[in-house]
Write a structure and sequence with these properties.
Elements: E1 4-10, E2 13-14, E3 21-29, E4 35-42, H1 51-54, E5 63-70, E6 78-92, E7 97-104, E8 115-123, H2 124-134, E9 138-139, E10 148-157, H3 159-169, E11 172-177, E12 180-185, E13 195-199, E14 205-212, E15 220-227, E16 232-233, E17 237-238, E18 245-246, H4 251-258, E19 262-267, H5 273-289, E20 292-299, E21 309-313, H6 316-319, E22 321-333, E23 336-343, E24 372-376, E25 389-392, E26 402-407, E27 412-413, E28 416-417, E29 427-432, E30 440-445, E31 466-470, E32 476-480, E33 485-489, E34 495-499, E35 504-508, E36 514-518, E37 521-525
Parallel strand pairs: 9-12, 13-21, 15-19, 26-30
Antiparallel strand pairs: 1-2, 1-5, 3-4, 3-22, 4-7, 5-6, 6-7, 8-10, 11-12, 14-20, 15-16, 15-17, 18-22, 20-23, 21-22, 22-23, 24-25, 24-29, 25-26, 27-28, 29-30, 31-32, 32-33, 33-34, 34-35, 35-36, 36-37
């Protein structure tokens, strides 16, 4: 067995030969940040010193490169990992100490911290490239994607998680090597055209484990979404078929046998049809890659990359075939180098991982989930000036579960908006900002068998004609879509009725006075006197003006003028004209 020699370099300088490397491990997988672990002897118990740990060689933040080579002429060292020191761990006992160094690829910076930002008029490829470069990593090959998003939000998650979520929707796989992040279409083809063939019984295979799992297979996949323009779910986008060239099993044929006829992806919000199609394509492809999973351990070698093709021969009818390399592990111990080649992927979507989203309530305290029913307590002034209402939450504590809750409204602004403060005993719907039980908000109120709707509105009618607002004293605004009326009514029956069907408006007060506007004109009825006063002129104009009454008096404190082409003064009795001077000409 050839002897392997590892070279460990820190910022280009080799680890001094006096330090003994016990083992190393390098792991690279699709959709994961590569990492490596070095285990070295350190410490001198007799002197109480740890020379290797004390060197700057493995200080956190140092760039480390791992190269491997077999002893012999012409065997050059080949790089299998390059990354940064993340953890420097020292442990030991009476006789010796062990230094363990954890290394991670430079692209790990994409996983650091959560952020929120809005991207406008960009494709997923544009967004992903900007995220990679913002982390100080190098953007490798990134296929063009569709559609261009008018707006897309990264909400409080790491750049890495957001990238993987969008890559998965676009049917892409992510690979990382030496600080370069690249994306690849999920297909059975090697990006660099490399195939590694292993024949059982001929090639050196140290061990293998392979499984066929039909539990995540579907005959087909499709995606649909809510289309607000048609007010219905959009026509389904069918996924393109995806088939591995491995074994004699066909996922599409297996699926109906175990009940997996169709994987239907459904979004309750609008999507671009192109996004829906790639979403379905990606989920079906992941399903097919989940059919065969496993790993083959072989003699170590460096000339293998993620998404190369792995061809297995003479592994039986069930497992002979070609698949994608989805993971690599290089291990070195006691001069022995092994490479584990992994294939297959889990079918579970990346976004179902529990750590992608932030802890509910920001992790500040145990969160409250969903909406809660509440009962309004006695109204009190909110001394904080937030116009909150005290609400009892029986689902939290039936006796003392009383919290202050803010009041939501259809519109609210400075000195404007809707303002309807609920009454004591009202059953209300309570939500919580950010799932924080300290941040309650009343979202609305509930009718039911106890709090029934206003009189006249409580009876079910399939036409649903009645709508309105009624106060606790009976003041109401009522809309009747059958009668086509809008009524404003006080508890004392003073009203304004706008009747669209009869083209009529009626205003009535509590004293039997009324004004009616209809096709006949305007009618004013007064139960008592009728007085018209104006600070300016009063003019009555019409084709004919008639003034009638038992007695009619026209008084003017100034001049009185009667003009007309013909003027007739008639009286059935005497007609008297008097003045200090009367001229009749």
């Amino acid at each position: 067995m050839p002897i392997v020699t590892p070279d460990i370099l820190s910022e280009g300088k080799k680890l001094p030969a006096e330090f003994n490397l016990l083992s190393l491990e390098v792991i690279r997988e699709v959709n994961r940040i590569p990492f490596a672990q070095l285990v070295l002897e350190d410490g001198n118990p007799s002197e109480g010193k740890f020379p290797l740990s004390g060197l700057a060689f493995f200080e956190p933040g140092k760039e480390i490169e791992i190269k491997l080579r077999y002893e012999g002429e012409g065997n050059a060292s080949e790089s299998v990992f390059k990354g940064m020191v993340h953890r420097h761990n020292l442990e030991g006992g009476k006789k010796k100490a062990i230094l363990t160094v954890l290394l991670k690829d430079k692209a790990y910076a994409m996983t650091m911290g959560r952020k929120s930002q809005v991207f406008s008029e960009q494709t997923d490829a544009d967004i992903i490239k900007s995220l990679i470069e913002a982390a100080g990593a190098t953007a490798g090959t990134i296929p063009a994607t569709e559609p261009t998003h008018p707006e897309i939000v990264q909400y409080y998650c790491s750049d890495w998680d957001f990238m993987l979520a969008r890559a998965e929707v676009q049917n892409l796989l992510v690979t990382v090597k030496d600080g370069e992040v690249a994306l690849h279409k999920l297909e059975v083809a090697s990006p660099r055209g490399k195939t590694h063939t292993y024949t059982y019984g001929i090639n050196e295979i140290h061990s293998f484990e392979i499984e066929a799992d039909a539990g995540e297979q579907y005959e087909k996949a499709s995606a649909t979404y809510w289309d607000p323009k048609t007010q219905q779910m959009a026509e389904k986008s069918e996924a393109a078929p995806f088939s591995l060239k491995q074994t004699n099993l066909d996922g599409a044929k297996l699926a109906p046998l175990i009940g997996g006829k169709e994987l239907l992806l459904s979004s309750a919000v609008a999507l671009d049809p192109k996004e829906a199609k790639s979403w379905a394509d990606g989920r079906l492809a992941r399903s097919r890659l989940a059919l065969y999973k496993g790993a083959v351990s072989v003699a170590g070698f460096a000339d293998i990359e993620l998404l190369d093709l792995l061809k297995l021969e003479k592994f039986g009818a069930r497992f002979t075939g070609t698949t994608l390399v989805t993971g690599l592990r290089h291990t070195v111990s006691k001069d022995n180098w092994e490479t584990d080649i992994q294939f297959g992927l889990p079918a579970t979507p990346y976004t179902q991982r529990p750590d992608i989203q932030d802890a509910p309530a920001g992790g500040l305290l145990p969160a409250v989930h969903g909406l809660q029913p509440g009962l309004v307590e006695a109204l009190e002034e909110d001394t904080d000036g937030e116009f909150r209402v005290k609400v009892k939450l029986p689902g939290i504590d039936p006796d003392t579960g009383i919290v202050w809750a803010r009041l939501a409204a259809p519109e609210a602004g400075k000195e404007r908006g809707y303002f309807f403060r609920p009454e004591q005993g009202d059953e209300v719907v309570v939500g919580f900002f950010n799932d924080d039980p300290r941040q309650a908000v009343i979202l609305g109120a509930l009718f039911g068998s106890v709090n029934v709707p206003p009189p006249g509105m409580e009876t079910f009618d399939a036409e649903n004609p009645l709508k309105g607002i009624v106060s606790k004293t009976g003041i109401k605004m009522a809309i009747d879509d059958t009668a086509k009326t809008l009524t404003l009514l006080t508890s004392e029956s003073q009203s304004v009725v706008i009747d669209e069907q009869n083209k009529k408006i009626t205003i009535t007060d509590g004293n039997a006075n009324s004004i009616t506007l209809d096709s006949n004109g305007i009618t004013l009825n007064a139960a008592g006197d009728f007085t018209v006063q104006a600070s300016g002129d009063i003019k009555l104009n019409g084709a004919n003006v008639t003034i009638g009454g038992a007695d009619i008096t026209l008084d003017g404190s100034g001049n009185a003028t009667v003009n007309g082409s013909d003027i007739a003064l008639n009286g059935s009795g005497n007609v008297t004209i008097s003045g200090s001077q009367v001229d009749v000409q």
